[in-house]
Design goal:
The complex is a heterodimer of chains A (about 130) and B (about 190). By secondary structure, chain A is α/β, with parallel strands linked by helices. Helix content of chain A is about 45%, strand content about 15%. Chain A has one domain: Response regulator (Rossmann fold, 3-Layer(aba) Sandwich), CATH 3.40.50. Chain A is globular, with a radius of gyration of 13 Å. The model of chain A has no long low-confidence stretch (mean pLDDT about 95). In chain B, helix 3 runs antiparallel to helix 4 and helix 3 packs antiparallel against helix 5. The longest helix of chain B has about 40 residues. The chains are: A alpha/beta (about 130), B mainly alpha (about 190). Chains A and B meet through helix 1, helix 3, helix 4 and strand 5 of A and helix 3, helix 4, helix 5, helix 6 and helix 7 of B. Chain A: One of its GO terms (biological process) is phosphorelay signal transduction system.
């Protein structure tokens, strides 16, 4: 598993971005960029070269699910591993994310071990 | 009313009252009691309508609700500030890990990780407070509309919103503990697609 990939984390809460960045650092992922909504994330993804997206759902002006759909519809980005980390835990949300092509789904509040396990799982299969 | 004509509802009430008075002599005891009940009910409704129309809606929509939403916003700001200070301390502790024996460094790392996990409360509480603010704003609109209807004014138009995306439709924020799906249940659900 390549830990030198660029990771984009997307969340409208800056404290959550900081927490995820620090947890990623503990896992030796040091190339981390941030966005605070789906629209900003999409612009960064299109301009850069990212090997993993970790995104919240509930953001404006573009939600995490809508970002995921844009990523999967983009010829260059469509295979990028995409993990949703969200407080949206209803079955319908998980099903919608899976149908849109999510690589894995973590419900908030989460622990560091769950984050490690899901990242390893999606990067091994990438 | 500007032209001195009583409102439609008042005219109906007066007409019903006139009919009841004219019928009073032909009624049985039971019917009279029932009509008295109905009359009382009519008076209660009229009084409630008058009270709604006299509600200090400007206090509610101009002061109480904005004040409540400001207080809630302040809670989010304060918790964000406190969380950032806690994270500052964690980052300092992580930098010190290299200066302590390996066993202590490992214990330090474990403790810092648990603090990071606990700090995600700020996101969850922030989202919950956001839901309360949205509910207060919806109440504000309903109160304005109810008062406008009771006093014969036209209700303020709701802000126009465009069609929602699927992501927006499904964005409901954190569920209450009893209604939330666990990570294990989500893992099982995802596995069922494979």
């Amino acid at each position: 598993m390549d830990r030198n990939i660029n990771v984009l984390i997307v969340d409208d809460y800056r404290t959550m971005l900081r927490i995820i960045r620090n947890l990623l650092k503990q896992l030796d992922f040091n190339n981390v960029d941030e966005a605070t909504d789906g629209q900003e994330a999409l612009a960064k993804l299109r301009a850069g070269n990212f090997g993993l997206v970790i995104s919240d759902w509930n953001m404006a002006p573009m939600t995490g699910l809508d970002l995921l759909k844009e990523v999967r519809a983009d010829a260059r980005l469509k295979n990028t591993p995409f993990i949703m980390i969200t407080a949206e835990s209803k079955t319908e949300n998980v099903v919608a994310a899976k149908q849109a092509g999510v690589s894995n789904y973590i419900v908030k509040p989460f622990n560091a071990e769950t984050l490690r396990e899901k990242i390893e799982k999606v990067l091994v299969h990438a | 009313m500007p032209d001195g004509t009583p409102p439609e509802d008042d005219r109906i009430e007066a007409a019903v009252r006139a009919v009841l008075v004219s019928m009073a002599g032909d009624l049985t005891v039971k019917e009279a009691a029932l009509l008295a009940e109905l009359e009382g009910l009519g008076r209660t409704i009229a009084r409630a309508k008058a009270e709604i129309a006299q509600l200090s809606v400007d206090d509610i929509t101009g002061a109480h609700i904005p004040s409540a939403t400001d207080e809630l916003d302040a809670i989010v700001d304060h918790t964000a500030q406190a969380t950032n200070e806690i994270l500052d301390c964690c980052e300092t502790l992580e930098r010190l890990q290299g200066e302590v024996p390996p066993a202590a460094a490992e214990a330090l790392q474990g403790a810092v990780t648990r603090i990071y996990e606990a700090c995600s409360f700020q996101d969850i509480t922030g989202q919950r407070i956001g839901k309360v603010v949205a509910a207060l704003k919806a109440i504000e609109q309903r109160v304005e509309a109810a008062v406008a209807n009771a006093s014969g004014r036209s209700a303020p138009a709701a802000a126009a919103t465009g069609p929602k995306t699927e992501g927006e439709e499904l964005a409901n924020g954190p569920q209450l503990p009893g209604g939330a799906t666990s990570q294990a249940e989500i893992d099982r659900l995802l596995a069922s697609f494979d």
